[in-house]
Amino acid sequence: EAAPEPRSGRSAALRARMEERLLGARFRYLNQQLYTGSSQDAARLFRADPAAFHLYHRGFERQVQRWPERPVQRIVRYLRRRPASLVVADFGCGDCTLAASVKNQVHCFDLVPLSPRVTVCDMAKVPLAAESVDVAVFCLALMGTNLQEILGEANRVLKLGGILMVAEVASRFEDTRAFLKAMSHLGFRSVSKDLSSSYFYVLEFTKTGPARPGPAVGLRLRPCLYKRR
Ligand code: SAH
């Protein structure tokens, strides 16, 4: 005969469930702020509240674990097929899975260091010389509303003919053609598109020249908002 659950056990379980809900709610709120503000706003947010960053990352991990494949693994496979001598910049590197999985030199940029490899900075202004990297990566990291500024920074640090890899949540693209056109305005020609996952797209571009001045019309991505579960 099973003993009745002691009262303290029951309230501990209830508290755990409430905490779980609260974490979920805080994650969704932070996530929404990151997708609806600029990269500078994100930098300010996490500087003021580093705990929020760790909470965000726990929530992010939980989301991507539900997916059949992590997008960063596609980028890893892509790089492993190419010379390890290519220098990589990982914009919004998170826990540096990419750097840890390839032989290449990888410059890791994020707002808070989840790993000692991270250089803390806003991705709109990274401490790299112009035309110094072969591959720029944004893996689920195009979060700020100042997309043109962020991608302009990637253009600045990329060598001519360098590669830009973008992995993004599929539902964020409202008009892929318009997006690609805007990318060409920013000096990036589309080389290949992998739309095979229903969760995320992987887009490969090459740098054809500097970003042209003026607004890149069509450079829009929907915010990636998560529903309460
Ligand atoms: N690329 C990693 C992490 C993706 S989560 C992966 O695929 O696993 C998105 C990351 O972008 C987060 O770590 C977040 O902190 C970072 N990020 C968001 N805005 C940023 C900004 N303005 N500057 C630098 N990093 C930023």
UniProtKB/TrEMBL annotation:
Q: Which residues form the signal peptide?
A: none
Swiss-Prot/TrEMBL keywords: Chromatin regulator, Methyltransferase, Nucleus, Repressor, rRNA processing, S-adenosyl-L-methionine, Transcription, Transcription regulation, Transferase
Indicate where this protein resides in the cell. Answer: Nucleus, Nucleolus
MF terms (GO), sorted A to Z = methyltransferase activity
**One record GO biological process:** rDNA heterochromatin formation
Q: According to the lineage, what is the superkingdom? A: Eukaryota
Kindly report, in one word, the top-level EC class recorded for this enzyme.
transferase
Query: Cross-referenced InterPro entries, in alphabetical order?
Result: RRP8, RRP8_N, SAM-dependent_MTases_sf
Q: What is its EC number?
A: 2.1.1.-
Q: Which GO terms describe its cellular component?
A: chromatin silencing complex; nucleolus; rDNA heterochromatin
Regarding protein family, the annotation reads: Belongs to the methyltransferase superfamily. RRP8 family.
Kindly state the subunit structure of this protein: Component of the eNoSC complex, composed of SIRT1, SUV39H1 and RRP8.
Query: What is the purpose of this protein?
Result: Probable methyltransferase required to silence rDNA. Essential component of the eNoSC (energy-dependent nucleolar silencing) complex, a complex that mediates silencing of rDNA in response to intracellular energy status and acts by recruiting histone-modifying enzymes. The eNoSC complex is able to sense the energy status of cell: upon glucose starvation, elevation of NAD(+)/NADP(+) ratio activates SIRT1, leading to histone H3 deacetylation followed by dimethylation of H3 at 'Lys-9' (H3K9me2) by SUV39H1 and the formation of silent chromatin in the rDNA locus. In the complex, RRP8 binds to H3K9me2 and probably acts as a methyltransferase.
The name of this protein is Ribosomal RNA-processing protein 8
Organismal lineage = Eukaryota, Metazoa, Chordata, Craniata, Vertebrata
What gene codes for this chain? Rrp8
